[in-house]
Specification:
By secondary structure, this protein is an all-alpha fold. Helix content is about 80%, strand content about 0%. The protein is built from ten helices and no strands.
Length: about 190
């Protein structure tokens, strides 16, 4: 398989994920601000998830540019990442529908945690295939940002059972950290 097929498939799945999420935003039944206000939790959960999907799409794009050849481990670990990303619309809708209550927020954290782990595994599969001295191997280094993100998700999940809004704040904090462009791969390319 050529890397362009892997990238095209991944881009297609991510586009579908975003489409599914936006379809969960229903039109208000009235034309007042009170009706719009009722949709605020759903809209906020959509915005947070849209940003997360955009972050993963952007970083996945950079990962793919470091690949010279695709093999089965890269294909399967990429599919593993897409599996966890495909669950984001479900937890997005659930959290928004239930005003960021305990179990939906904790589950949202589990999905974010597993997505981050899947991304880490994909990164390692690419480095294993292309070597530690490859573009990605040299760029990622110790991957402090990736490791701290996984740790923050792991901390936020149990916190959600007591203070779901604090957990949601941690999820937003991790997204903000990743909004700052990661130039490591671009510099190596």
């Amino acid at each position: 398989m050529q890397k362009n097929r892997l990238e095209a498939f991944s881009d297609g799945v991510i586009a579908i994920i975003i489409t599914i999420m936006v379809l969960e935003l229903k039109i208000p039944h009235g034309d007042s601000f009170d009706e719009l206000k009722k949709l605020l939790p759903k809209f906020l959960s959509y915005v947070i998830s849209f940003i997360y999907i955009a972050i993963y799409w952007n970083n996945h794009h950079h990962l793919i540019h470091t690949i010279k050849r695709v093999n089965a481990p890269i294909m399967w670990t990429n599919t593993h990442l897409l599996f966890w990303l495909s669950l984001v619309p479900f937890v997005t809708a659930w959290a928004g529908e239930n005003n960021f209550s305990v179990l939906p927020v904790a589950t949202y954290g589990v999905i974010l945690f597993m997505t981050a782990v899947a991304y880490f595994i994909l990164t390692k599969a690419i480095i294993f295939t292309h070597g530690d001295e490859s573009v990605l191997g040299a760029a990622v280094g110790k991957d402090f940002k990736g490791k701290i993100s996984v740790l923050l998700y792991a901390i936020a999940i149990p916190i959600a059972f007591f203070e779901p809004y604090i957990s949601t704040g941690i999820y937003i904090l991790v997204a903000i950290v990743w909004l700052i462009p990661d130039k490591r791969i671009e510099k190596k390319l």
